[in-house]
Amino acid sequence: MATEADEQLDIAPDEKLMAATISQDAGFLLAKLHAAGSVLNNRALATFGLKERSYSVLALANSELEPTQREMAEFLSLDPSQIVALIDELERRGLVIRAPGKQDRRAKIVSATAEGATIFRRAETAAREAESAALAGLNGTEIAALKGLLRKALWGPAA
Amino acid sequence: MATEADEQLDIAPDEKLMAATISQDAGFLLAKLHAAGSVLNNRALATFGLKERSYSVLALANSELEPTQREMAEFLSLDPSQIVALIDELERRGLVIRAPGKQDRRAKIVSATAEGATIFRRAETAAREAESAALAGLNGTEIAALKGLLRKALWGPAA
DNA sequence: AATAAATCATTGACTTTTTCAACTATCCAT
DNA sequence: ATGGATAGTTGAAAAAGTCAATGATTTATT
């Protein structure tokens, strides 16, 4: 009987392959944790008719930063044409509006409507809970450290 | 002139949106760092006719863990049918072989051929360099800390 | 001022990836 | 021995990603 320690944890046949060298790979670890988190996140956001992508667009629209679509695309690592589709949908639902840029009328500034702000606040709460669940293995200090390292890797010490 | 500090860094119009609340979101940070790393990773692996996905399958095939396709699917967070396609390709190129499981003949154990091992070793070196580039903003200690936190989030203290 | 070059959003075509339900073969429990 | 589960495979449909072309507008050049 090779299986002796299968008492309570049916959740992790992962364990066998944890010994593979790829488990030391940052890219793999990022992908895997992101995948696990996405499931929880999307499940939580579905309540509001949102997915990770539309949620992040709505989040930027809710900031006071007056982001253009191009800035959103770059920041979210998406193609500009994907942003168009996401905003089309949010705008159709009355959650955001497009306005021409003040200095540059080619650009369009996306901002949230009152309803968009309301939905965002509620979705944000749900997303936070999902994140907590995804990072349940870490304590508060560790979560802060993880986020700090991710930000530093992305943006340097200025993050 | 709103733009005063554009001397050398044309690379980061990100900075404006860094202030958005979503920049504190673990899911967003994971996605963004993974996206940035994937570009470098895939570029490095293209030399060997590999992508991140096929590379990770090849990596598992190169372990001594005798993984089945299902175990690979679970570990890599992929659908079993995607594993089929990835292995079909690698097998066609003579880099891995399928063998029936010893206890369970439904399962198929995937292992690397000699050529698969050779290519993997070289690809591994390239992937490591890509990872270094992706995490250039962190020093060695920080990289180790980041990986440790990711592993702990995924698998708990036992990682 | 006029022209040329570049940029933003958009569209549409195309490819790739993801998701899911069926199917066969095999294993496990009764 | 039968029934129910599981591993791999196939194929179809949906979603996501990539990319080139276009009109409107801005910026640079003459």
Polypeptide structure, described:
The structure is a homodimer of 159-residue chains. Chain A has one domain: Winged helix-like DNA-binding domain superfamily/Winged helix DNA-binding domain (Arc Repressor Mutant, subunit A, Orthogonal Bundle). Chain A has a two-stranded antiparallel sheet with strand order 1-2. Chain A starts with 25 loop residues before the first helix and ends with a helix. The longest helix of chain A is centred in the first third of the chain and has 21 residues. Chain A has 159 residues and is mainly alpha-helical. The N terminus of chain A is likely disordered. In chain A, helix 1 packs across helix 5 and helix 2 packs across helix 4. Chain A is built from six helices and two strands, in the order ααααββαα. At the A-B interface, helix 1, helix 2, helix 3, helix 5 and helix 6 of A face helix 1, helix 2, helix 3, helix 5 and helix 6 of B. The first copy, chain A, binds a DNA duplex (30 and 30 nucleotides) through helix 4.
